[in-house]
Amino acid sequence: MADETAFRDALAQHAERRQGGQEILMALQENETTPRSRGRGRVVWAAAAALAIAGGVIGGTALLGSSPAAYAVTKNADGTVTVSIKDIKAIEPANAKLRELGVRAKAVPMTSDCAPLNGASMYNGSDWDVPNGVSNDSVTIGTKIPSGYTVLLSVSDKPGRGTGLGYTGPVQGPAPSCVLDPADDPDQRATN
């Protein structure tokens, strides 16, 4: 609802600017009757055109606003962290925020040419906080992740998947730079 109100306010401001610009142009047309004023008229017309263009740029920016955030990393009151990544290009800034918050999780791209995760490097215990609230938009990570392990957040940019945001169980050692897309994993295809 707040977005709709902001949009309507911006639209009203844009309409007011356009109306003001039109009134200036009409006044200039009415005043341009003598040959002597034509030289000045051109300068005034150029100034009016520049004003109209500037108003259009300002109005366009107000109407369009900024694009939605490509990522969000939010620390919740209960200590969990909710991560949303809408653009694969936002992986690095999201990871920087995760590191800043001390969360042992890392966002990585999901690709068709990445090596499959080694089962030996996966955490086998059940005493960790499995991410919850998983949707195509976000995942909430708990604070209990085994020491020396990292939860991987996979981000896909394949068409028809939205962000394709997902996660793995904790992985031991240095976190890989990507995860294999399950659609391209022969082990995954064999079990489905």
Pick out its properties.
three-stranded antiparallel β-sheet; alpha/beta; four-stranded mixed β-sheet; 7 strands; globular; 192 residues
Describe, in plain words, how this protein is organized in 3D.
- It is a single chain.
- Strand 1 and strand 2 form a beta hairpin.
- This protein has two domains: 63 residues; 115 residues, no CATH class.
- It is of the alpha/beta class.
- It contains four helices and seven strands; from the N terminus they run ααββαβββββα.
- The strands form two sheets. Strands 6-5-3-7 form a four-stranded mixed beta sheet. It has a three-stranded antiparallel beta sheet with strand order 1-2-4, with helices on one face.
What percent of residues adopt helix (DSSP H or I)? 25-40%
**SSE run:** HHEEHEEEEEH
Domains counted in the coordinates: how many?
A: 2
What oligomeric state best describes the polypeptide chains here? Answer: single chain
Q: What's the total count of β strands?
A: 7
Q: Which segments are poorly predicted (pLDDT under 50) over 5 or more consecutive residues?
A: 54-66
Task: Describe the structure concisely for a colleague.
This protein is α/β, with parallel strands linked by helices. It folds into two domains: 2-64; 71-185, no CATH class.
